[in-house]
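Reply to dn_fold:

You asked what the input looked like. This is it:
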Amino acid sequence: MSSKIGSVAAIMQKNASNKGTVIFLHGSGDTGKGVKEWVNFLLGNDWNFPHLKVLFPTAPVRKYTPLGGAPSHVWFDRENISPDVPEHLDTIEPMGKEVVNLIEKEVMSGIPLEHIIIGGFSMGGAMAIHVGYRLKPQVAGVFALSSFLNYNSVVYKHLESYKEQQEFPPLFMCHGDRDDLVPLTWGEETFKNLEKLGVKGQFHTIKNALHELKRQELKAWSDWVRERVPE
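and this is what came back:
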């Protein structure tokens, strides 16, 4: 199966005076088009980045072990949806390079690297953390909504090696307190571990939220994006 990112599903805002780009990675089993429609449904006219381009790429279709090996749009494979299994680096590494290629295409189009934000929902947020703190740490910021890193993540090992040598992009995380797929404690521990290793950011607990996006978190997210790349 292909390991290439699918065609970019949508560009939410594209203006002649674009100052930056936001790349939003969907969760497992979804598509760029799907998460774009989800964000639009929740925010409607309450979000507008007239100075930014927002990209919603689609992950390739690959065999996904938690679905019994059935094909699905996922950024990487994993043994189980659990923090204590090893990361599947055979799929994380090539996919990370594909996301970096997407970032570099934006740079080649004239967008400064320090004006590019990478993030996503659930698995998409996990992929973004790998990119923003290992593979392309010069980005303007990383966001991870209902997201996670496994206990022995290579991201932690990488940051431990470099924490005295560079400043890392700020992190924005949100997590539902009723999430029954990726428990709140998993998200909180991910944030605390990154914070101990030199990452600065915000963690917001979303009340009465399951494994989902909520309007209030997206409003806070859009405010954060504007702070990272102002008009």
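The mean pLDDT is 92.
Hope that clears it up.
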